[in-house]
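Q: Please design a sequence for this.
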């Protein structure tokens, strides 16, 4: 369970800071990956200048890493977290329970999401002033410090 909380926290982690958007610049993407205790996590940012516009996290966590053996046990263990995502504008979660692992995708549209609601969700971490957006530079630094590698 400790791994699950830490793993999900890593996946949902994002750094919020003051940003400046460069006018006329095209949106770009960066993807980061981490494999830990059999779980795989992939975080993709869409950004313009230093401002993150969207974040998509794709996670696959084996039931063994969660300390469970069945779909039903996994559903029960994750239900409280899943419920927190419901009804939050700009935040979408899909979850699939396979034979031996759970696959989850969490997409955040920072141009639409209510940051006050997101910061209240368990596993979500914020740092800095959310009023002006999320810094790509600080997000990248934080992920690399947690062991994520940039995907080419």
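A: Design:
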């Amino acid at each position: 369970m400790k791994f699950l909380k830490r793993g999900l926290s890593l996946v949902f982690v994002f750094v919020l800071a003051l940003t400046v958007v460069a006018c006329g610049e095209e949106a770009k993407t960066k993807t980061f990956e981490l494999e830990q205790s059999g779980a795989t996590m992939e975080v993709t940012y869409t950004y313009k200048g230093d401002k993150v516009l969207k974040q998509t996290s794709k996670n696959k966590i084996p039931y063994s890493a969660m300390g469970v053996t069945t779909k039903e046990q996994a559903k029960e263990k994750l239900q409280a977290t899943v419920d927190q995502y419901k009804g939050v504008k700009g935040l979408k979660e899909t979850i699939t329970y396979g034979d031996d692992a759970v696959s989850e995708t969490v997409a955040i549209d920072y141009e639409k999401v209510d940051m006050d609601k997101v910061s209240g969700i368990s596993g979500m971490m914020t740092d800095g002033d959310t009023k002006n957006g999320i810094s790509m530079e600080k997000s990248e630094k934080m992920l690399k410090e947690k062991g994520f590698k940039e995907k080419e």
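Q: Thanks. Anything notable?
A: Confidence is low (pLDDT under 50) at residues 2-23. Strands lie at 28-36, 39-48, 51-62, 91-97, 101-109, 149-151.
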